[in-house]
Amino acid sequence: MEPRLRAARPHRAVKPARAVEPGTLTLVTQPYARVLLRDRELGMTPLFNVSVPGGRQTLRLIGSDNQTRLLTVDVAPKRLTTVRVVLDSLPRGR
To answer: Residue 70 — φ and ψ, nearest 5°?
Structure first.
């Protein structure tokens, strides 16, 4: 018995990933905190109209007690995202 040969399937072109447009973040915390996105320091809260990459972002918030807390924010591309949060309501991180 001879092996069957299959016709090659046509190659599908892979669409390049679209770059996500940045959005703008306003963040108010109680009490104030230092805010970092990855290794980039965004500043102290309150933050107003800070440009950040669009999509889901995890922010590190360092409070006056030097405890780090994590905040995940869905930043709308090309839009303003506003978040108000009490630090003690957030999970602690590293």
So the answer is: -110, 140
